[in-house]
Amino acid sequence: MQDLSTIKEHFDEHGYAVVEGVLDDAIIADLEADYLDLINRHAPQWLAEGRIPELFEDLPLYERFGTIVSYLDELEYRWFDIAFPQAKTPTNKLPNFSRPVFDLLTHPNVLNYIEALIGGEILANPIHHIRIKPQETILKAEKPNGLTKATGWHQDQGVAREVADDTDMITAWIAISDATVENGCLSVVPGSHKTGLTTHCMTNGVTIPDALIDEANVLPIPIKRGGILFMHRRTQHSSTPNKSNSIRWSFDLRYQPTGQPTGRDEFPSFVVRSRSNPDNITVDYEQWVDLWKQTESWMLAQEQFEKSHRWDGDAEVCA
Ligand SMILES: O=C(O)CCC(=O)C(=O)O
Ligand SMILES: [Fe+2]
User: Fold this and answer.
1) 3-state class of 158 per DSSP?
2) Mind listing the pLDDT tens digit for each residue in 187-199?
């Protein structure tokens, strides 16, 4: 493990920290097998519905993921994600609440770094996603899911509700494939976490206009498979389109001190580490799935949802 106090110092000063080699091959292999299984379960249906032209069974794993995802629209990609879409109409598509995903969320190696950053009372915040970003040249879906494309500038605090403004939420952006400049790794503006919440507009999602980004200081963050970029909730970040010839695959998870609002309180959060009361770790895999199923029932009964962010796009800078 890299020296925790150096990592915390860097994080506090610059608003991010990169740690390579956090996850070993075993958990990554479990996630790969899990997503292969997901594809094998759904591909025949996608083929029957004419969404994909064939099963692509002969392709190497990542090429197959990318090729299939490139055909899928916003709604079908929801099978891959690991949470419901925020405050949008739910569908009968349950996200991938699998055991390997739970094992990732609760992985001790990840939590050790989170503990170094925010202390030993840790809650898994339910704002989390998987992003399989195929190379731009093969994207065919008319309405692709935003999780399969480049991401505009934003702060994660800006895409949560105001109620969580003071929550010390940390984003853990986990590379499953190597993330490179060419395939659209993340970029950050170091130090931007110290300048408060920036105005977000409603342009291509909830994004900060380029005019408010200190472009001279933008820093791309390539990360190898198994490495993690930790970000402060106010660190400005974005990602570019995938210009390579393979997929960029990542998870972004969020953690925070227990007892603070998550900003998505209709989704289940759960304690993943408690140094003061280890007996407080009560949610196991089956219970976690149950919590999400209860959320689904609740969502299906709603006519409308509270907005998941505070912006209306009316600020002068958005014009
Ligand atoms: O992976 C991306 O393109 C964006 C990720 C992101 O915004 C995040 O992890 O908070
Ligand atoms: Fe983000």
Assistant:
1) helix
2) 999 999 999 999 9
Mutation choice for ligand 1 from 147, 229, 239, CB with most ligand atoms inside 8 A: 239
Would you say the CB of residue 254 lies under 6 angstroms from ligand 1? no
Question: How far does CA 152 lie from the centroid of its chain?
Answer: 14
> In this structure, which residue's CA is closest to atom 4 in ligand 1?
151
Residue carrying the six token digits 């980004």: 213
Give the ranges where 147-275 is alpha helix by DSSP (H): none
**Integer Cα distance of 101 and 105 in angstroms:** 6
Domain ranges in the chain? 4-83+97-276
* Ligand nearest to C-alpha 148: 1
- With beta carbons less than 8 A apart as the criterion, state whether 136 and 103 touch: no
In this prediction, residues 257-262 reach a mean pLDDT of 97
Q: Categorize the per-residue pLDDT at 87 as very low, low, confident or very high, splitting at 50, 70 and 90.
A: low
CA 253 – ligand 1 centroid, Å: 10
Q: Which candidate, 156, 170, 220, places its Cα nearest to that of 11?
A: 170
Query: Rounded to whole angstroms, how far apart are CA atoms 31 and 279?
Result: 28
Please give the mean pLDDT across all residues of the chain. Answer: 95
Among 256, 204, 209, which Cα is nearest to 230's? 256
How big is the chain, counted in residues?
319
By C-alpha distance, which of 318, 313, 302 is closest to 84?
302
- The residues near 18 (Cβ < 8 Å, ≥ 6 apart) are 221, 223, 227, 228, 229, 230
pLDDT at 11: 98
**Architecture of the domain whose range is 4-83+97-276:** Sandwich (2.60)
**Contact criterion met (CB below 8 Å) for 206 and 161:** no
User: From ligand 1's centre to the CA of 308, what distance in Å?
Assistant: 17
Best CA proximity match to 232, nearest among 192, 180, 186: 192
Is the CB of 207 inside a 6 Å radius of any atom of ligand 1? no
